[in-house]
Amino acid sequence: MENIVIIDDDPAIQMLLKRTLASRGYEVTVAGNGADGLAQVQALHPAMVICDWVMPKMNGLEVCRHVKSLPELATTFFILLTSKGSVEDRVEGLDAGADDFLCKPIEMFELEARIRSGLRLYQLNNDLKRQKQLIEAELAEAADYVCSLLPEPSPYPPLIVDMRFIPSSQLGGDSFDYYWLDDQYAVMYLLDVSGHGLRAALPSVSVLNLLRSQALKQVDYRKPSQVLAGLNEIFQMTARNDKYFTIWYGVYNQRKRQLTYASAGHPPAILISPQRGGAIATFPLKTPGFPVGMFPDVEYEEAVCTVAAQSSLYLFSDGIYEIPQHNGEIWGIDPFIGQLETYHRQRERNLDDIIQVVRTLARKPDFDDDLSLLEIRFAH
């Protein structure tokens, strides 16, 4: 049977409520003041609190605010006993977190009805809380699975690769990969599926597995435009599937030091190369093209650039720079590129430095979108 805590400084009210509710089979705990009552509530985690509004030292509103501020008591149903009947008083009680009111003098049939109604809501809220916890556990498991599919860093030349992947609180659709097609050509890409949750994560994983197994038919994986066209043919949006994704896909020819790339609605990759006198040059690498799945029969364009020794290529999703600021603006890609340039000038580089900057700007532990960052250093 559910536990009910009664908090009232009137012994007669205490006795009346305790006797009535105990006779109905409820477990009843009584406290004579707000401080003692709050301590009982924190210790017992009851289903319901029936609390007098007007009490010395700590009144019912203060008790209610304390109770509702504690996550472990969020579902506890709180009834304020009051002789106050004005709309303003009720608004004040609701703002404090009260779930219901009971006017003095207490009418016992009304009391029992409100208790039954409150306990039904308490049970419903608890069921919803458990369902939420199960969903969060499943999303965390899915995020772990996505992380397990992503590549490991590579500390050895000719390509020194590092990466960071931080799933959002809702799990999104980022994924990335790099690998050698043969001893001459290396593939690198990063994609971002629209939306959040498992419906975004599943297409992302499918693309990663499809590209890694080179299962696209009649596609030369050394030709980024063909790869994107092949993906666009397979992952078309339908009435039952509204997901599309952006992607940047590049192929590096080690012998010629050439990078061939194509993009489908994705932020540009950033190539930073050394110049004479210790200067650097920044090259945004992007080609026009609709996101994959948005329209059929899209032709994707390629571009080619030469990669100087000691250059670095940065691939990322928009979650790393679409950070809301105090003034309501978004941090934006240009300040992020400036941060990459600052980072690139450091003698000792660690991607955690960039992540820390983004966390500081976000001002909260969890991000609203997946955050992905891939760094590829061309050693020689």
Structure explained in plain terms:
This protein is of the alpha/beta class and 380 residues long. The chain folds into two domains: 3-133, Rossmann fold, CATH 3.40.50; 150-378, PPM-type phosphatase domain (Phosphatase 2c, domain 1, 4-Layer Sandwich), CATH 3.60.40.10. Helices cover 36% and strands 25% of the residues. It is built from nine helices and 15 strands. It has a five-stranded parallel beta sheet, with helices on both faces. Strands 6-15-14-11-12 form a five-stranded antiparallel beta sheet, with helices on one face. It has a five-stranded antiparallel beta sheet with strand order 7-8-9-10-13, with helices on one face. The termini are far apart.
Keywords:
Phosphatase 2c, domain 1; 9 helices; single chain; alpha/beta; Rossmann fold
Summarize the structure in short.
The chain has 380 residues and is α/β, with parallel strands linked by helices.
- The H/E string reads EHEHEHEHEHEEEHHEEEEEEHHE
Number of domains: 2
Overall form: elongated
β-strand amount: 25-35%
Mean pLDDT: 90
CATH superfamily of the largest domain: PPM-type phosphatase domain
Low-pLDDT residue intervals, each spanning 5 or more residues: none
Cα distance spanning the termini: 73 Å
Biggest sheet character: 5 strands, parallel
Order of strands in the sheet with most strands: 2-1-3-4-5
The CATH first-level class of the largest domain comes to Alpha Beta
Under the CATH scheme, which architecture of the largest domain would be assigned? Answer: 4-Layer Sandwich
Number of strands: 15
Tally of helical runs: 9
